[in-house]
Amino acid sequence: MKTIDSIAQELEGYDPQALSATTVNAFLSRLVEPVTAHETVGIFQALGRVLSQDVVSPISVPPHDNSAMDGYAFDGSQLAAHAPLTLKVMGTALAGKAWGGLVGPGQCLKIMTGAILPTGLDTVVPQEFVAVRAELVEAGTDPSTGSGRTEFITIPPNILQAGDNRRKLGEDLLQGHPALQKGELLTPAALGLLASLGIKQVSVWRRLRVAYFSTGDEILSLGEAPRAGAVFDSNRYTVFGLLTRLGCEVIDLGVVRDEPALLEAAFLRAAAAADAIITSGGVSVGEADYTKAMMKKLGDVAFWKIAMRPGRPMAVGRILKDKSGSSPRGISVNSYNNNSNPASSTAAVLFGLPGNPVAVMVTFLAFVRPALLQMMGSTAKAPPLLKARSLEPLRKKPGRTEYQRGTVSTAADGSLHVKTTGNQGSGVLSSMVQANGLIVLHHTQGDVAVGDEVDVMMFDGVI
Length: 463
Ligand code: AMP
Ligand code: MG
Known about the structure:
Layout: H1 4-10, H2 21-31, E1 38-42, E2 55-56, E3 66-67, E4 71-74, E5 85-93, E6 107-111, E7 123-126, E8 131-136, E9 149-155, E10 166-167, E11 178-180, H3 188-196, E12 201-205, E13 209-215, E14 219-220, E15 231-232, H4 235-246, E16 249-256, H5 260-273, E17 276-280, H6 290-298, E18 299-305, E19 308-309, E20 313-320, H7 342-346, E21 347-353, H8 357-375, E22 386-390, E23 401-410, E24 416-420, H9 430-434, E25 437-441, E26 453-458
Parallel strand pairs: 5-6, 13-16, 13-17, 14-15, 17-21, 19-23, 22-24
Antiparallel strand pairs: 1-12, 2-11, 3-10, 4-6, 4-7, 5-9, 8-9, 18-20, 20-21, 22-26, 23-24, 23-25, 25-26
Helix pairs in contact: 2-8, 4-8, 5-6
The protein binds adenosine monophosphate and magnesium ion.
The site of magnesium ion has 5 residues, from loops.
């Protein structure tokens, strides 16, 4: 396990007093380690979990060549340019049943969508393209069709090519090939794909356990009587929502007042129970120093000023697990003992976020979320930033990354444009509700003029 100092030494331009957002991400990706324990879960429990093994396809999907249309199947080599093709209908193939007969040259098979294409037939003409002619069979039944009438179809020239409307065996998934990869986050589409392979259970990494608490003497828990100078705790609720959306197990440790004994107890409970700890407040310069002092005492922690807005101060590192063996009351530790995680068995990763509600959310999205995904064993890349034209001028100083809350919409010409939500104060939480994304003004970027393209990080599915 690398120490904070040794990670810092690996990074070029590491300056804890003016860290760039890129360096923060680079630091965190070196600090955190993925969980190592895994478990098997049923398909309904697998949504949002991360695969701990490749899923190899036990079958091919589709399992046979089959028809993509309701129509007539035939051997496409008989199609000739500029000439119509007339074929005798030998029977009907329905989906779900193999058709047992033979179809030779000059013949075809009426076929329904999804029905197996018999060997030798590689082309389907949709029924609406053909002219059908029926002939009554004199003296009884036609031996090849078994009915009292024979049907013929005529396919007009130049409407079809050999191979059209055939779904090929294995065109979705091929037997023996990986259908899903280790590290993939299981989405609704992935659940459907597992089911299409007949797979009921998958092996996933255990859920990440994240403990969090808010700090500050002025922070009221819900239900407490309002008093002058105090504000209700909002950070625990946004953090709860963000973590739950990410698929983490959450451990809520409440509001902790600025008192060494209370802070120490909270950190130790958090470290004992969780892989990661998120705190808010108490890391800025003007603070009564108890939170920072306790982080230093109980772990290996760096205190940063990040070149960003909002969210300058942040503490990052590890809080060591209490070796005295005292299991905190009410929290089950080591509930997973198959393959215990070496990283989380000695220390929990600490993300000490600033106190301001918008700064908490922005630092979570920019830094904590990617680090937690890595801890969850996910190989997901950061979602791509979109480009939108700014509807207003934006003032921006080069040398820091700014995240402005924005509303992205579609312009008449189909392109995207974006405007800010107005007041960008780091305590204005209503702007996070109003916005549907963050305008990301990068480290070296300067002022933005009306009509300039800016990068936007959309909230969809995240916030
Ligand atoms: P701090 O980083 O502790 O100096 O806090 C910065 C600002 O955020 C102060 O105005 C705090 O009152 C506010 N703040 C801190 N924690 C919370 C919280 N949990 N909920 C709402 N506001 C908070
Ligand atoms: Mg505070």
